[in-house]
Write a structure and sequence with these properties.
By secondary structure, this protein is mainly alpha-helical. The protein is about 50% helix and about 10% strand. It starts with a helix and ends in a 15-residue tail after the last helix.
């Protein structure tokens, strides 16, 4: 839908995913969309180079989130939110909504 503006479908997927979930990492995106990891890594690098997102290491995983210092962050989020409303609901549920654990936690397992 926004591929013409962002230049790549992967960038659109990353931005929508970050809008809904606030944080992500490369292999999480790859698994969620059932696509190759390399395009997502390149897209994340491109967005980070542009200052739109920032990354930090948590354990062995590089986590990405929106850059709170990005000057147009509120406008970008408003634009993405408006665009997100027009996505089909089955598409939203399949790719962007956080997955809810269906199986209960093992008895006695610490939180």
């Amino acid at each position: 839908m926004l591929e013409a503006i962002f230049g790549a479908k992967v960038i659109e997927k990353i931005l929508f995913f970050l809008l809904i979930n606030e944080r992500c990492y490369g292999s999480q995106l790859s698994r969620s969309f059932d696509e190759a990891l390399t395009p997502f890594q390149k897209g994340l690098d491109r967005l980070e180079a542009g200052g739109i997102i920032v990354s930090f290491v948590e354990g062995k995983t590089r986590i990405y989130q929106f850059n709170p210092r990005y000057p147009f962050l509120s406008e970008l989020k408003a634009f993405l939110l408006k665009s997100y409303e027009f996505l089909p609901s089955e598409f939203k549920e399949r790719f962007y909504q956080p997955k809810i654990r269906k199986r209960p936690r093992r008895k006695g397992k610490p939180l």
